[in-house]
Amino acid sequence: MIDGFDYIGKESNKLEEVEEGAVPSEIDVCTKFGDPQRDEWKTKILPFLRQEPVQVIIDATGISRRTVQRIRNEQTKPTAEHRRLLASFAKNRNFGH
Q: Cα–Cα distances in Å, from 42 out to 2, 35, 49, 71?
């Protein structure tokens, strides 16, 4: 069964050069793009956060009201730490069930 796709940039045409040793690493020639339709943040966590009361999220994560609101409205991208806290909050609240 196919679990998904990794979209890669046109630089992947140079992968043969990596195999030949002309380019040190595939990291130097390959850019991967995730499938937004399979991004857990977009498809599960963010919709869940939009349904939860803002104050509950604030109390559980310590993130400011303004930041929570801006993240929920997609006016800003969460920092890595905020994303971790919010994902943990959602998972602890059984967001997928």
A: 21, 11, 11, 11
Query: What pTM did the predictor assign?
Result: 0.62
Q: How far apart are the first and last CA of the chain?
A: 24
Task: Please give the single-letter amino acid code of residue 66.
Answer: R
Phi, psi of 33 (to 5 degrees): -120, 125
Residue 17 CA: distances (Å) to CA of 6, 10, 26, 85: 21, 14, 9, 41
Return the residue matching tokens 């310590």. Answer: 62
**Cα dist from 16 to 23, 28, 61, 85, whole Å:** 9, 12, 47, 41
> Per-residue pLDDT tens for 10-38?
555 555 665 666 655 555 555 555 555 56
